[in-house]
Structures are given as structure tokens and as C-alpha cells.
Amino acid sequence: MIRLRDLRAEDSEHLFLWRRRPEVDRWMHGAAFQTFEQHERWFDALRDDRDRRGWIITFDERPAGLLTLGGVTGADRRGEWGWYIGEDWARGRGAGRAAQALGLERAFDAFALEKVCAEVMADNEAALRVQAAAGFRREGYLRAHLIKDGRRRDVVRLGLLAQEWAERRGRLTAELVARGLLPLGVNGA
Q1: Which pLDDT tens digits describe the chain residue by residue (189 residues)?
Q2: 20 exposed, middle or buried (CB, 10 Å; 0-12, 13-18, 19+)?
Q3: How many domains does the chain have?
Q4: For a designed S-S bond to 64, which of 84, 90, 126, 178 qualifies (C-beta 3.0 to 4.6 A apart)?
């Protein structure tokens, strides 16, 4: 079962180690922090930021990844979204799709956002598929947008409107409940 829980002080070490893993880092903007102290400053700033939220993705009560949502207090009602699965054992088992559904519920219901945006590296086909399954649409293609591992990388800009999520959420969450990835009762499933 996938759940989102608030960040705790003890999560900082998990996040530091996950972010440094090559299979996670290769898809992230920027480089992983070189020291734990640098990471701790980032972690404390995330927890203290009123406009940004972060949650640990748990899989059967075990920490498995991170989901963040920025822009929760903005006047435009538009959030910026990011997530990853940090544990090898949790990848390829639907954890990302389920965590994304829970995160979108929070974005559109709890925070009353009207749009959620994301940026995904253009060659991250798995992430693009998962985002598309939730209803995200491509809104832009940013050529040579960032430098990763010494080379320029293209990025796809994605967006999902609250109404689009409302049209898709019942079917998607029912599927995830049937697979045992979400608790019964998410969106009435």
C-alpha cells in the first residue's frame, strides 16, 4: 500500500542517500549535494517553506521516495511538482503511479490548486509515461535546457488542470485500489 506522510527529521538521511544514487540522480535537475551539511540546509529549508510541501512516499510503511509540491500558496493557484522513487525494490511496482495519484489529490483538493506543472528530462520515457497516465499534457519542449553530467539536456514541460484530473481520477484510483496500491476510499473507490 502506498501512502504519503509528512517529512520527519529522520528522513533527511534517506533523502541524502537516495539522491546520490546514480539511478535517481541521472533524472534530476542539478547535481546531488556533495556533503550531508549542504543537504541538511536544503532539507531544513524545504520543511520551513510555507509555499512548498514535501512528503515521504511509503510502500507498505517503508520509506520509498519523495514527492514535493511548490506554489501551494501562490495567487495563480499553480503548483510545481516533482517526485522520485529512491528504493530499487519499489521501482516498477506501481509506487510512482500511486504516489502521483495521492499527490494530485492533495494538490487539487487540499491545496485547491487549479494546475500542476512538471519538468521531465526528454529521454526519461518511464516518467513521461507515468505522468501521461495521470493526464499530464506536454506544454513545451525546452531544448538544451540544463546541463547534466557535463552535457546539455532537453526537458519536456508538462501540465495538468484540475478539471482534467477530475475526469481521470476515478478510473485511475479505482485501478490502483484494485491492485492493492491505494487504500479503499480514495476518491470513493
Answers
A1: 999 999 999 999 999 999 999 999 999 988 888 899 999 999 999 999 999 999 999 999 999 999 999 999 999 999 999 999 999 999 999 999 999 999 999 999 999 999 999 999 999 999 999 999 999 999 999 999 999 989 999 999 999 999 999 999 999 999 999 999 998 776 544
A2: middle
A3: 1
A4: 90
